[in-house]
UniProtKB/TrEMBL annotation, chains A, B:
Name used for this protein in its record: TetR/AcrR family transcriptional regulator
PROSITE patterns: HTH_TETR_2
Residue ranges of every copy of the HTH tetR-type domain listed in the record: 28-87
SUPFAM superfamilies (alphabetical): Homeodomain-like, Tetracyclin repressor-like, C-terminal domain
Organism: Nonomuraea diastatica
Region (Disordered): 1-24, 200-225
Length: 225, 225
DNA sequence: AGAGAAAGCGGAGGGCCCTCCGCTGAGACC
DNA sequence: GGTCTCAGCGGAGGGCCCTCCGCTTTCTCT
């Protein structure tokens, strides 16, 4: 995802390529092809996906796939990270539109929906999350940042606790997804997220009736998709 | 332990029931050897364990291992289930000794500690939990039953919510373990269990200062980044 | 005791994972 | 353009997973 290495202004070749060409063109293209094929394959497949089939479909050798993505997790994370922007970006959008505690629940739902579409890679994603191999520096941090923004806003408004570490909430969410997002336990995911919400409200502010709509003045189930 | 149907060890009693085929003595011994070897190997190993090495160490062919345990999960669950009794049994013991909400937290801690010792099989356990392949009929149910006992007791005492499904709490716990029990995030596990406790208290009964910036009771010395 | 049946055994085999390494050709420099 | 060089390529190879099937051993019945 990043181009760390910096070739010292190799720009002056015949055709200037926007000033920065650290990687060979063909290598970059291979990488992109691999991600594209992987995304499609992961989305289509239900169970495990063979990396060799991805390499084959992308028209490269298995060695090339492993050159670009040293582990299965690396490839999965690349696909996952590439699509995560929508989720993280929606945090501030939601905060503009709703009070923090409503925005939080809504954001959780969106994240859950996002994860639910990752069928073909859930297993790997799961293993990677759990072991910290995935998302420690990159992805998880982005999630935690988005989450932290909402939590801080709610803390200021007094509708969310101020004494929780956003990282703990991230872990909690991943845990909920890990334990429910695999099968068809979609409603259970919703109930568990409700429990998480309950844990995040300040002592006095819990809404007694649990089922139904949490309301809070704005309709528990948001109108948006 | 499962032991689907244990015919009286009619290894070679003169008369055996004809409707009911006893398991051959040697087959049973093989099964037990496999579980014993697997338990030792899983406990010793840190990462993934080769099933072929288990079969080899048990002195049987790989085919025999797969005959007894058709999937890796089946073997892991057999080992796991065999040691689960201590945990489930402790539920009623704890209820005798403590008020329900204290017993609940204590029980969670014990379960967490138990899972934490399962190092060599966490990955498989995780995948099995998440997919429902493990523990759906057997193990998970035992956990849920133990948990339900504590929850019911707390509900009656008014110190725990009455409107939560024990199965949801089981899923929540598994989620917490799934997302933290892998690495050394032991203290995070504690904090997350604290959040779960908060979610399970009835609206009025939350203890305001207890957890938070500092820690829950014992040694939450986690530095927040 | 002897024989027949089938439960149970073991390992070959095919597929996937990931590593390693010799070769090719893109790009830099002349 | 021509040459040099190493980034990048591809696939062979070793290990593990799991299946399949012919052979062995145990148990039952006579």
């Amino acid at each position: 995802m990043s181009s760390p290495e910096a070739t010292p202004a190799a720009a002056r070749t015949g055709q200037a390529d926007r000033g920065d060409r650290p990687v060979r063109a063909h290598a970059r293209r291979n990488r992109e092809t691999l991600i594209a094929v992987a995304r499609a394959t992961f989305a289509a497949a239900e169970g495990t996906v063979s990396l060799e089939s991805i390499a084959r479909d992308a028209g490269v050798g298995i060695g090339t796939l492993y050159r670009h993505f040293p582990t299965r997790e690396a490839l999965v994370e690349a696909v996952y990270a590439a699509e995560l922007d929508d989720v993280t970006a929606s945090a501030s959008t939601l905060l503009d539109a709703f009070p923090p505690e409503v925005a939080l629940r809504e954001w959780m739902d969106r994240y859950a929906a996002f994860v639910a579409t990752k069928r073909g890679m859930v297993d790997t994603l799961r293993a990677g999350w759990a072991s910290g191999r995935i998302a420690t520096p990159t992805t998880r941090e982005r999630i935690t940042t988005a989450l932290g923004m909402i939590l801080a806003s709610g803390a200021q408004a007094g509708t969310l606790r101020a004494d929780v570490d956003p990282e703990d909430v991230t872990a909690m969410l991943l845990g909920v997804f890990l334990s429910t997002a695999a099968s068809d336990r979609w409603e259970q995911t919703g109930r568990l997220l409700g429990l998480v919400m309950d844990a995040l409200r300040p002592p006095g502010a819990r809404t007694p009736p649990r089922r139904g709509g949490d309301a809070a003045g704005g309709g528990g189930n948001r109108p948006s998709p």
